[in-house]
Amino acid sequence: MVCLKSTTGKLRLILDTNIVFSALINKKSTIRDILLSDRILFLFTLFYLLSKVNIVKRDVFSGNLEKARKIMEKIDIYDSEFLALAFSVENEGIFSKDRDFDKSGIKRWSVEELLEWLARK
What we know:
Layout: E1 11-15, H1 17-25, H2 30-35, E2 40-44, E3 53-55, H3 58-61, H4 65-72, H5 80-88, E4 93-95, E5 108-109, H6 111-120
Parallel strand pairs: 1-2, 1-4, 2-3, 4-5
Helix pairs in contact: 4-5
């Protein structure tokens, strides 16, 4: 998997909802710190309160939804929208603790990988 170079110097990542809930529950968490970093731009399919998140309407990724569903149907069908969004917009992967994305063909960024990336810059 090759990650796209960002023209802004920021990573553009699809955001898994489980990451959001984890950050909301624990205010003193590494995940929350990553979400609030000004060096990463997150893309999200549902309404979310953080100002650093771009909300993407379903029509942007609906053309890739069937493709994503076919890939995820035996893995986790509920993750299809995240995968469809990753297929539809320029991005460097999905930020998720869910290893099911490892089988999708899209780069999954773990907490540890993002911490390493942030430390390098």
